[in-house]
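Project standup — Tuesday

K.O.: blocked on the structure for the chain from last sprint. Re-posting the sequence here as requested.
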Amino acid sequence: MAITHTRSTRKASGGRYKKGANKKKQYELGRQPALTHIGERRAKSVRTLGNNKKVRVTASNSANVFDPKTKKYVQAAIKSVLENPANRHFVRRNIMTKGAVIETDKGKAKITSRPGQDGSIDAVLVE
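H.V.: unblocked you, prediction finished:
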């Protein structure tokens, strides 16, 4: 069964919308989440609409960390995921998404990129 981003055929009350039995269109399709975790770097290239490409990082053990004090980027090793606003269960599974706070060898950092869509893990030091 395909993952789709269409409106539900059911109303909030439980009734049905009259015209909602259209076919699934290709531009409405979605994919399974990348669920980027800590490990040796693994990336997957995915074809998107318009024959464009997206790089999905499925595992990585380093991040490009920005230090606001020195205004410089440095590559830091990722130790663990401390908190993740997307899903609280992602913390114990060490899954990284945008907004997650990670522990690096430079200190705590918040992820600002989308690892499942950008192909890199960029973060800003919090402390």
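K.O.: great, moving the ticket to review. Strands lie at 36-38, 42-47, 53-60, 62-67, 72-83, 95-96, 101-104, 107-111, 122-125. The chain has a mean pLDDT of 93.
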